[in-house]
Amino acid sequence: MPEAHETVLEIDLGALAHNYRTIRSKVPADVKFMAVIKAYAYGNDSVSFARKLEELGANYLAVAYIQEGVRLRAAGITAPVMIFHPQKENFEQLIEHCLEPSLYSEKLLREFIAFAEEKKQKDYPVHIKFNTGMNRLGFAEKATEKVFEILRNTSAVKVHSVFSHLAASEDWKEREFTLNQINRFRSIAQKFIEEFSYEPLLHICNTSAIFNYPEAALSMVRSGIGLYGFGNDKNIDANLKPVGTLKTIISQIQHLEPGDTVGYNRTYKVDKPSKIATLPLGYADGIHRKYGNEKTGVYIHGQFAPIVGNVCMDIIMIDVTEIDCKEGDEVIVFGNVQHATRFAEAGNTISYELITGISQRVTRLILEEEQ
Ligand SMILES: *Cc1c(COP(=O)(O)O)cnc(C)c1O
Asked: Could you give the residue numbers annotated as active site?
């Protein structure tokens, strides 16, 4: 049950199952599925998501950092876990917990091999990342020969997958660029297969690419945002269900007279008798100041109420003059995907940032799948 701070992020594992099955159905059944649950499963709850995804049949889980993987293992998660951005300082824990590193630079590759050799490892599972245009992490295409040479000289590691990441798979204007990334990746993968005479898992698709470039599913796809209900596109959103609903209640209703103002620095001034409701959440919960001053709003009994005045650390004020409501009534900050997407856009950001930003102060309430 929610605690005294009565704002909860309700998490619907039934919606997660629906989204998993929907995304999975877009690619052939033999394509493996990596569920991306970094950053607390995009601000939800990594352990309950990992358990559910294992049960649903996800082949791989992925997180960004080693500590996130350690937390999954501590909770009894046994699925293969890939670490996108491992740090050398934690290699010991990585091996101890059978976590699989993404190796993306010559320095990291050499460091990991040296460590694995020192620990007397044989065929330790690793993943090699190539940069095909994102220009973030990854070996350059021209480093291929060098990578092969380093790998050839050790038996401490075995490449389980070769992968790359798309820069703009949700953007149709960048279709040519994306197709070029995919082609470059295919050619790198082909070189690997020729060199080592076996085919590791090959993957380049994130959620948007699974929908927009299903022919590039190769042998595995990686999905994050879609599992949480967001498809980066209205038509795709329509087939997915929101996993997280941020709910709160009205703490108090203030009755204002014309000329009265609301909140710090008096940025909202009413010109008619008005009703202002205060909500027990603020920027410390992840609803940042950028969402204040009527940029966006919340829903009460299905009716829209704008956020007015500056967002405070622990409190938000909304104008409910036109809404029949009372103290204690339920308020939906976001849930519906269309609204959550617009909410994020109003703050000049994307769904990813909105949902991963809901702070750990907010109680997570996990609803199991309805049978
Ligand atoms: C976060 C991440 C993903 C997931 O992308 P979505 O757009 O959320 O599906 C996939 N691959 C890598 C390398 C990532 O960092």
From this structure: 38, 264
Q: How far apart are CA 225 and CA 229, in angstroms?
A: 7
Atom of ligand 1 nearest to the CA of 163: 13
pTM over 0.90: yes
157 C-alpha to ligand 1 centroid (Å): 24
Q: Is the dihedral of CA 298, 302, 229, 176 positive or negative?
A: negative
pLDDT tens for each residue of 125-135: 999 999 999 99
Domain 13-228 fold is: TIM Barrel (3.20.20)
Domain boundaries along the sequence of the chain: 13-228, 244-367
Closest by CA to 337, choosing from 22, 62, 40, is: 22
Nearest CA to ligand 1 atom 12: 165
Residue with tokens 């190539």: 130
Tokens encoding 249: 């209640």
Nearest C-alpha neighbor of 318 from the set 280, 346, 283, 277? 277
Determine the distance separating the centroid of ligand 1 and the alpha carbon of 304, expressed in angstroms: 32
CA of 272 to the centre of ligand 1 (A): 48
Ligand 1 pocket, 19 CB below 6 A?
Answer: no
∠ CA 306-310-316 to the nearest 5 degrees?
60
Report the CATH fold assignment for 244-367: Lyase, Ornithine Decarboxylase; Chain A, domain 1 (2.40.37)
DSSP 8-state class, residue 323: S
User: What does the block give as tokens for 37?
Assistant: 């649950």
Ligand 1 pocket, 206 CB below 6 A? yes
Burial of 2 (0-12, 13-18, 19+ CB in 10 A): middle
For 95-122, the pLDDT digits (tens) are 999 999 999 999 999 999 999 999 999 9
State which ligand 1 atom lies nearest to the alpha carbon of 207: 9
State the virtual CA torsion across 193, 196, 199, 203 in degrees, nearest 10. -70
List the residue whose alpha carbon is closest to atom 15 of ligand 1.
84
Distances (CA, A) of 358 to 310, 311, 362: 18, 15, 7
pLDDT of residue 370: 56
